[in-house]
Amino acid sequence: MQKLKPRRFLIIALVGAVIGLIIALAGNMASGPSLVPQGFTLSNVFTSLLCGMIFSLSFYICCGVPWIYLGPMIIDYPRAIKTTITAAVGAVGASLAITIAITLTNQLPDVHNEWADHMGNVIAGEAVAGAIIALIIGAFRHLQRAVVLAEAKAHEREMREVHLAEAAAKAQAAALQSQINPHFFFNTLNTLSSLIPAEATCAQEIVGRLADMFRYTLACSRADSVTLNQELEFTENYLRLEQARFRERLRVTMPHRDFADILLPGLSLQPLVENAIKYGVAQRVEGGSVEVAVHRNGTGCRVDVLSPSDGAVQKDRFFRPGHALENVRDRLQLFGGAKSGVDIADEAAQIRVSLVLAQ
Predict the structure, then answer these.
(1) Class of residue 144 by CB neighbours under 10 A (exposed 0-12, middle 13-18, buried 19+)
(2) Domains in the chain: boundaries
(3) Cβ–Cβ under 8 Å, residues 294 and 323
């Protein structure tokens, strides 16, 4: 509920005084009767100011003040009832205000308000005018409330969509993690089973890297972001495991890890490398090279994963519903904005899949 502020009475009185003076000046320059005595004397100016203040305060007290208390009381009433109450209060308030104003101004020295001679007609006309004005103001306030309510609902809907998007991103991360872990786990166990009899040291290294990877995926499920250094280390562990499986068929080039200031969602880079091996190395008898390169771009960066290509890459296959790269693209855009995501380019004998992060 609004509060009755004394300062408003002062403002209304000053505005009324100015209007009263203007009307008095206009009456002096025109021929005919005037509310206040003719002539630009100090007494007449003071009387004009006082008449304006009386009229303005009368209408504010009788028409404006009641709505400070009545408005919140009827805000939830049906539209027809609110319209009837608004018109009634406007009519009664305007009639009472004009009656008080005429009565008080007629008590001032040298003032005779001609409206007093036709009081009945004046009150009736003022009642109609007050009802119409009250309905117009009521309609405007109703429209104003509707706009505010619509904006609040739009904001609430927007915030709900953001929360849903964040929840979806976390669900996608969990889904991606569930895709990665079993896949790595079974492939790595098969590799270990073949290495243990002849290459115990290599098998021991694989077990250590596998443990590091599981530890990292568990940490990613609890964090909103990780550093690019951490992603590169995780990806390198994955590539070393795959090298143990593919042997000389897989050749790897990794960048130096000096990107601790760049943040991104966890488990974003590894799916790009996994696709590079699946479509660029595993399908070739001779295998191929996978190169990871990082390019800074202002406050953001681009991470390129290059692998062999037959020159007939179908880009749509990378972004299928539920596919890992589609999840990564959506999560990057949620994290870094619309300019972030995954970009794919076919470059003659190579395909370049880029992780783009705009910060």
Answers:
(1) exposed
(2) 6-156, 163-357
(3) no
What does CATH list as the number for 163-357? 3.30.565.10
Confirm if 34 and 21 have CB atoms less than 8 A apart. Answer: no
Residue type present at position 254: M
Model pTM? 0.51
pLDDT digits (tens, 9 = 90+) for 157-206: 888 777 766 666 666 555 555 555 455 566 666 666 666 666 777 777 87
Q: Could you give the 3-state DSSP secondary structure of residue 255?
A: coil
DSSP code, position 351: E
Q: Mind listing the pLDDT tens digit for each residue in 226-239?
A: 999 999 999 998 89
Tokens of 35: 């509310």
Coil, strand or helix at 174: helix
Percent of the chain residues topping a pLDDT of 70: 79
CA dihedral (268, 270, 310, 317) in degrees, to 10, reads -50
Length of the chain: 359
